[in-house]
Design goal:
2 domains; alpha+beta; 7-stranded mixed beta sheet; binds phenylalanine; two-stranded antiparallel ribbon; 341 residues
Length: 341
């Protein structure tokens, strides 16, 4: 076939092919096929030697025209295809701002978290650090090491949730006292917040699982007045400077002497109302000087070291502070409730 004819054929072929190109990949294939190193245009140039001399200029000219034509077609279609692609993308990404928004579900701190944040900050400020202990405890840490005798009612099945003969769900955070004294030398100044369990029926003021915050200070020459000062500072900062405090003699097997701490009722201001059972006082924590037996069992010499401990109901603090009259709402995690704090 005559080269000029071949050029014509290629020209027709090219027009059709480029017109029907679907995407940029196909377009690139065509470019390689016609303009590439071994493409059809190159092939014509390489056949130039066979052309008669007088025809060479015209064949050369036509080949160049073909080459430019293909190049232009390629550029044109490439631009068009790229534009189409961009438009398609933009269309897919359009946001209809008139549609109602999707509200993301953001959580909220439970009152417990608010309380502990505040309590932790307060005690950190007084030089305490934070300790933790297991919720599944041994009888030893929960009772024995705390000087709680075998026949003490707290050990009863009625009060304690046993897992087996040896393990139980801790009934208070006091075992952390022992664990801390065993692993750390005095001076000790810790608080230990955590979940505790008792075999109670659920009602407005009882829950089989609730929370406590334990405190323990051990050093040389720690006296009851250190206990009083610490508790007073805590109560005043937590509940307000205007609250009155009273220490009422009490009994705990692991402290001697022991005291329960009451603050003046926030509802009636100490006059007496149904909230405080007409006493004018609300109980906030148990406390006392660490019993010598407890120190001894934890490996400390009671002739050298002394200390105090306290334990408070974390739930109770939340209820007092936020005027909550039913403990159950603290555990239901109803967002309508939680979002109020
Ligand atoms: N563990 C006691 C309770 O649960 C509270 C307490 C802690 C009392 C520390 C004295 C000292 O009631």
């Amino acid at each position: 076939m005559d080269l000029l004819e071949e050029i014509k054929n290629i020209e027709q072929e090219v027009e059709k092919k480029f017109e029907n190109v679907k995407d940029l990949d196909q377009l690139e294939e065509l470019r390689v096929k016609y303009l590439g190193k071994n493409g059809k245009v190159k092939q014509i140039f390489s056949k130039m030697g066979q052309v008669d001399d007088d025809k060479k200029p015209i064949v050369g000219k036509e080949t160049n025209i073909l080459k430019n034509k293909i190049q232009n077609l390629y550029n044109e279609i490439k631009e068009k295809k790229e534009k189409e692609l961009k438009e398609k993308k933009l269309k897919e990404e359009t946001i209809d701002v008139t549609l109602p928004g999707v509200k993301s579900n953001i959580g909220h701190k439970n009152p417990f978290t608010h309380i502990i944040d505040e309590v932790v900050e307060l005690f950190l400020g007084m030089g305490f650090s934070i300790e933790e202990g297991p919720e599944v405890e041994t009888e030893y840490y929960n009772f024995e090491a705390l000087n709680i005798p075998e026949d003490h009612p707290a050990r009863d099945l009625q009060d304690t949730l046993y897992i087996d003969d040896k393990y139980l769900l801790r009934t208070h955070t006091s075992p952390v006292q022992i664990r801390t004294m065993e692993k750390q030398d005095p001076p000790i100044r810790i608080i230990a917040p955590g979940r505790v369990y008792r075999s109670d029926e659920l009602d407005a003021s009882h829950s089989p699982n609730f929370h406590q915050i334990e405190g323990l200070v051990i050093d040389k020459d720690i006296s009851f007045s250190d206990l009083k000062g610490t508790i007073e500072e805590f109560v005043h900062q937590m509940y307000g400077e205007d609250r009155e405090i009273r220490f009422r003699p009490s009994y705990f097997p692991f402290t001697e002497p022991s005291a329960e701490v009451d603050v003046s009722c926030n509802v009636c201001g100490g006059e007496g109302c149904s909230f405080c059972s007409y006493t004018g006082w609300v109980e906030v924590l148990g406390s006392g000087m660490v019993h010598p037996n407890v120190l001894r069992m934890s490996g400390l010499d009671p002739d050298v070291y002394s200390g105090f401990a306290f334990g408070m109901g974390w739930d109770r603090i939340a209820m007092l502070k936020y005027d909550i009259n039913d403990i159950r709402v603290l555990y239901e995690n109803d967002k309508r409730f939680i979002h109020q704090f």
